[in-house]
Amino acid sequence: MNWLDKLERKFGRFAIKGLSRYIVFLMAFTYCLIYFLDVSGTYIFKLMLIPDLVLDGEVWRLITFIFIPPTTNLLWVVFALMFYYFIGTTLEREWGSFKFNVYYFTGVLGTIIAAFAFGGFGTSFYLNLTIFLAFARLYPNYEIQLYLVLPIKVKYLAWVDWFYLLYAILTQPVPVKITVIASIVNYLIFFGPEMIAYMRNRSVVYQNRSRFRVIHAPKTAKHKCTVCGATEMDDSKLEFRYCIDCEGDHEYCMEHLNTHEHVREG
Ligand SMILES: [Zn+2]
Ligand SMILES: [Zn+2]
Questions:
Q1: How far apart are alpha carbons 5 and 119 in whole angstroms?
Q2: What pLDDT, on a 0 to 100 scale, did the predictor assign at position 153?
Q3: pTM for the full model?
């Protein structure tokens, strides 16, 4: 993610801190607006991403569609929003605010482009799905309670989602294929290089084994605690997270994540 690091150095200060808080808050607000105040169901229509109406001047639709809650059921919406909040902040702690912003807004942009290119409605369904898929890739063994009773690891849910996406790409008409691909482009940007490198490495390791040769990768630390300066090279068991309350992206070891004084710039 070299180019992302470069972008971060230039534009990192524009990242929205705690983005998931705002999105989840606005989804909850929208839910109340739609289902407690609006019996006739016209508000929700006003928020949808409909390209023809955007071109007619209703430009707010480019952003409001992401605040439409994922379900109409009050109980489920509470759980869904808590879950979105949880996986969103987890990703932000893992990547830092800037990369999480890039991931989220690339997904938004992909959704908008697909909606415009092929007409029809834009939906935040795939966007939210890619957030989940990123979470499942980073924490495959995290267990959630499906339907509140059945414990299941997120990697299995992710497999079901991938199967569903692949099925759509293989069997649906071209506009739908492209829409699905455009919506998951953020995932491909973030994890594609890693996946390709992994496949290459496997073949390299295989070749090297047969030649009895070992490649020494150059060692530089990826993570460093802002307080004590520890890196994953000091102890491979150490874990690091970005703090979403510090200004700018600052990383901490678990010991200092909750005990440091938040960085204030200026
Ligand atoms: Zn530390
Ligand atoms: Zn902090």
A1: 35
A2: 92
A3: 0.82
Ranges under pLDDT 50 in the chain = 212-214
- Closest listed residue to residue 64, CA positions, set 29, 97, 40: 29
Q: Which ligand is nearest to the CA of 243?
A: 2
How many Cβ atoms from other residues are within 10 Å of residue 54's Cβ? 18
Nearest ligand to residue 253 Cα: 1
How far is ligand 2, taken at its centre, from the CA of residue 261, in Å?
A: 6
What architecture (CATH level 2) is domain 15-195? Up-down Bundle (1.20)
Ligand in nearest proximity to the CA of 254 = 1
Give the C-alpha separation, 101 to 225, whole Å.
22
Q: Give the pLDDT confidence score for residue 117 in this predicted structure.
A: 82
Which stretch of DSSP H or E encloses residue 153?
Answer: strand 150-153
Position 90 scores a pLDDT of 94
3-state DSSP call for residue 141? coil
Residue-range domain boundaries for the chain = 15-195, 221-259
Taking residue 32's Cβ as centre, other Cβ atoms within 10 Å add up to 12
Give the Cβ contact number of residue 193 at 10 Å.
13
